[in-house]
């Protein structure tokens, strides 16, 4: 299969079979409308499109999805009203924000709530007028400045200060949802946390192949260079499969390894297709670097691997180290250590009984503690309450512009 040469297919899901359908009559979003907006994220982003929008649709919401479909070369699926917007990336953001502002101004009055996913959209959220805005906080926003290669060095500190101010402003004007408990320290008030958990299949295939996988965005700080090094270190002893979009300069190196036959790079694959494809693998890679933005979070790919019966090989970020120890579902390796990673991968491949025991323990742990089937209930309840408060004029000031 060829590597990334364009984004395949549609990315906006209908509810999946793995999600728990609401009981008849239990549709808290019935009669409510929500405008979901992003100019940065891929329209198939797992949290936005697969988990949150699936939950909203199941709960009876009518959903409009404002996203950069053309910018990523994808088409939306049935189930939502899709509106294209210009894509923001690198230093090319002003035109996308102008486009988003115009479309939010036009669309927001037709909806009970606007759900935004990018800190950039905070700059134009006032275009929603009297429609309440919810910001879903996915990351430690000021800390991300240090890993953005497109931000000039002298501007990193002032931009970080501006983003800190922007977070305080957003807290006063909008409702906030936090994807990590660690993000609470970014704000003065107490805001609900809807963890970046995952849907957990009831049954999965145990590890049964000489195969290691990676699912997610490919950037330097997420371990793309280590994946390239691992492909060279393990050679043809293990099949290395990579599912994800490359950013920055990582694409050329991955393409070279793909062309040389040392790994298989599938490019972007929608989350609901990529995760079933990893069943039976001996290990899943989560090789994030020790960056400030990662230190307070538990990257979802750690949960996703265990949810799908794949032991994780991960770097020792604080939350990740604790997660692996508590779950018994994987191995921790040093940061940026290709040799140690290769040894850990080969040890799991060569000892399938150990891999199966880790997979079983990890699957059970995630099903109990990091299950979107449970967390989606709180997500839907928060949005339904805020939407009805906004509609009825009974809000406490949040959402006023």
Structure description:
This protein is an alpha/beta fold and 401 residues long. The protein has 2 domains: 33-197 and 372-392, Rossmann fold; 211-369, Glycogen Phosphorylase B (Rossmann fold, 3-Layer(aba) Sandwich), CATH 3.40.50.2000. It is 39% helix and 13% strand. The protein is built from 14 helices and 12 strands. It has helices at 46-58, 69-72, 94-107, 141-144, 153-173, 224-234, 250-259, 271-277, 292-295, 300-307, 318-327, 338-350, 352-369, 372-392, and strands spanning 33-37, 62-67, 81-84, 113-116, 133-137, 175-178, 211-215, 239-243, 264-267, 283-286, 312-314, 330-332. The strands form 2 sheets. The chain has a 6-stranded parallel beta sheet, with helices on both faces. Strand 1, helix 1 and strand 2 (62-67) form a beta-alpha-beta unit. Helix 1 crosses helix 14 and helix 6 (224-234) runs parallel beside helix 7. It is globular. The protein starts with 32 loop residues before the first strand and ends in a 9-residue tail after the last helix. The model is unreliable at 1-25 and 394-401 (pLDDT under 50).
Brief account:
With 401 residues, the protein is α/β, with parallel strands linked by helices. The strands form two sheets. It has a six-stranded parallel β-sheet with strand order 3-2-1-4-5-6, with helices on both faces.
